[in-house]
TrEMBL record:
Name listed for the protein in its UniProt record: Inner membrane protein YphA
Membrane topology: Multi-pass membrane protein
Membrane found in the keyword field: yes
Xref: Pfam families: DoxX
One annotated Gene Ontology cellular component of this protein: membrane
Organism: Achromobacter kerstersii
């Protein structure tokens, strides 16, 4: 089997999408199983009411991941995760306001999140180019 055949296989595609969704699946499940902790996290970032913010984040992380992995409205799930990831970077990794001892870590985390948001835009772009009229549903 050639490298091209391996890399263009449906299994590799799905595993790559699963890897992209991994942090959101983990985050959503942890928040769901520890809702008090999820509320505390929302309050820490100034999101109120914390219980509604936590519920919305759980729904977004898990729901958008399901859309991406199922292939149904993949573009919508991908764009939702792109916006969420960019917003999270702007809220949680404001390196330009960080003290010197945490600036480097926050800067790295910020740009990693921006890169991940870009990857989600590419997933949406790819979905639109594969299905320009929304017909076939590649997995």
């Amino acid at each position: 089997m050639t490298m091209r055949a391996v890399m263009t296989s449906p299994a590799v595609r799905w595993l790559a999408l699963l890897a992209l969704c991994g942090a959101y699946l983990q985050g959503g499940l942890v928040k769901l199983l520890d809702f008090d902790g999820a509320q505390a996290e929302m309050a820490h970032f100034g999101l109120h009411p914390a219980h509604l913010a936590a519920a919305a984040v759980i729904l977004l992380e898990l729901g958008a991941s399901v859309l991406v992995l199922s292939g149904r409205l993949r573009w919508l799930g991908a764009l939702a995760l792109a916006v969420f990831t960019a917003a999270a970077a702007l809220m949680a990794n404001r390196y330009w306001e960080s003290p010197a001892d945490t600036r480097f870590m926050n800067m790295n985390a910020f740009y990693e999140h921006i890169g991940l948001a870009g990857a989600w835009v590419l997933v949406a772009w790819h979905d639109f180019t594969e299905r320009p009229h929304g017909r076939s549903q590649p997995k």
